[in-house]
Amino acid sequence: MSNYHIKHLEEYWQVYRKSVRNPAVFWEEIAEEHFLWRKKWDEVLSWDFSKPEIKWFAGAKLNITENCLDRHLATRADKTAILFEPNDPKEEAQHITYQELHARVCRFANVLADQGVGKGDRVCIYLPMVPKLAVSLLACARLGAVHSVVFAGFSATALATRINDCNCKLVICSDGSYRGKKTIDLKTIVDEALEQCPGVETSLVVKRTGGAVVMKDGRDKWLQPLLDKAATTRAATIVDAEDPLFILYTSGSTGKPKGMVHTTGGYMVYTAYTFKNAFQYREEDVYWCTADIGWITGHSYIVYGPLTNGATTVMFEGVPSYPDYGRFWEIVEKHKITQFYTAPTAIRALAKENLDFVENHDLSSLKVLGTVGEPINEEAWHWYNDHVGKKKSPIIDTWWQTETGGIMISPIPYSTPTIPTFATLPMPGIQPVLMDENGKEIEGNSVEGRLAIKFPWPSIARTIYGNHERYRDTYFSAYPGNYFTGDGALRDAVGYYRITGRVDDVIIVSGHNLGTAPIEDAINEHPAVAESAIVGFPHDIKGNALYGYVTLKETGETRNHDNLRKEINQLITDRIGPIAKLDKIQFTEGLPKTRSGKIMRRILRKIAGKDTSNLGDISTLLNPEVVQDIMDKSLA
Ligand code: WTA
Prior knowledge:
Elements: H1 9-21, H2 23-34, E1 43-48, E2 53-58, E3 61-62, H3 64-68, H4 73-76, E4 80-85, E5 94-97, H5 98-114, E6 122-125, H6 131-143, E7 146-149, H7 156-165, E8 170-174, E9 177-179, E10 182-184, H8 186-194, E11 202-206, E12 220-222, H9 223-229, E13 239-240, E14 244-250, E15 258-263, H10 265-278, E16 286-289, H11 296-308, E17 312-316, H12 327-335, E18 339-342, H13 344-351, H14 356-359, E19 368-372, H15 378-388, E20 395-398, E21 432-435, E22 441-442, E23 447-453, E24 463-464, H16 468-476, E25 483-491, E26 497-502, E27 506-509, E28 512-515, H17 516-524, E29 529-539, E30 543-552, H18 561-575, E31 584-588, H19 601-608, H20 625-632
Parallel strand pairs: 4-17, 6-7, 6-8, 7-14, 8-11, 11-12, 16-17, 16-18, 18-19, 19-20, 30-31
Antiparallel strand pairs: 1-2, 3-13, 4-5, 9-10, 14-15, 15-24, 21-22, 21-23, 23-25, 25-26, 27-28, 29-30
Helix pairs in contact: 1-2, 5-6, 5-9, 7-8, 10-11, 13-15
The structure holds 5'-O-[(S)-ethoxy(hydroxy)phosphoryl]adenosine.
């Protein structure tokens, strides 16, 4: 039996039982056999969920880039590490070998060091999906610096908030980006953000589009000339397993984004292990995850998981619809992709288009199909299975979170029988539990509740940057002794898990987590707005879309409502980004509230979802009369 590579269902169960019987022994064996440590740990695991404090492999010394790069040079120097597929199919794909990637990372690390970046410093990365994005992460890690990648679709305000929250001293950005037919001027967004970021001394600018940019003297520097002068080797800075590797922001129920802190050793072990098993990765495979590195999926399963395994990982700069809706399948055929990992929203969007887009391509190289980010509906699952996988490639519905660092619940392809919409079984080492509303564990099968995890795994986030109390309150206070996920789930008769969706004020739109509070804050900035409430409602492609209920200050507001809607969406675009725009905005006389003044979102959610048959008891509301009025004027 191999703990590291599970090949059939009985083996899964054996490995799983072992992993929960003695997790420390289980993970220690894996860590010892498959990674390069400069010094072994003093203790495999110490933890206390009440503080909470979690340490894996404490005292061990390593550098993750030696695991991603250096140790492959003896056997895989000429193997493609990153396969870059540009936005424009006429631009040639780039095959960057392990040898070349090693040199590029060292060069970039030397430049960063020259700019004064050292161990523990925070570096913000705001780049499109070009190879330098992956190289930037690794260059920071080479120096023991902490990267904080911000998805390059966020607005200037959102970027500035994230830069300031963790005091980044340097920003890596680009002149612009290509997305389908569009060219986006990213540098202007960065310039606007940096006006609010006094702590940033330097910005390094990658040239991608060649668009005109303003370079601020003393602060902005073109990256390429600095790289040209830098040496192609650099000794890795050795860090402790519990030193931070990166910060990645995720939305929460309250206004400020949460800077989840991931540390080095445990994160490396867990992402490598889950990559190997969830994707059944083998040496000759060409693996493609379509996510952006700006999200956790890209961190763990484009960069770190694949590279620690010595894999070929594809980075795609473009969008699924350009130059036409066959682009994904064209890339699968062109590069003979073996594992394909995407989001349900992309599957739904492509399923709407003509089947010829799929059928015109040879997809026979595919062995595993993955999905992540939100629950996948049955129809999308079948379309993916029938037309992309031709019923031969198992679909792994992988449930996990920014906070968990790696895949938590997922079938092991070719081992775990799959059922549409079920994430199925926990990965080795993961101990899920379902909780009832009173905080009691629900035992047995065929039950539904709130999903929590009762034992630490190596890649759990260790804190929220600068706010450990919020970390404790958000994840460890609902069910003391357990990590609370914020998701609901059911466990069926055979013990398979199905994730039913968020049970908090986070709404997942096209696979992006959006907190309602920051959107409401943005809307409330509009001078005509008194208050607002956002809820999600089902949407064919996005999974959920946003419905805003907005009360204006002057009830007799005579301004054109369509203009107001545009202004509100513009404010949201400015404060957060276009991904958070509202699909529907209903102006209301008031919002239903409890006697303690809390907005009753449950009612608003039902109205937005056209599900008003059973609104529950509304007589206890402070203002039950508004409910009828809202229903009468509903846009649903
Ligand atoms: C949701 C993405 C159902 C869930 C890796 C979770 C899913 C949130 C699935 C985390 C899935 C992710 N089925 N729901 N397979 N995968 N989710 O932090 O609500 O961007 O809590 O991490 O996405 O989103 P995040």
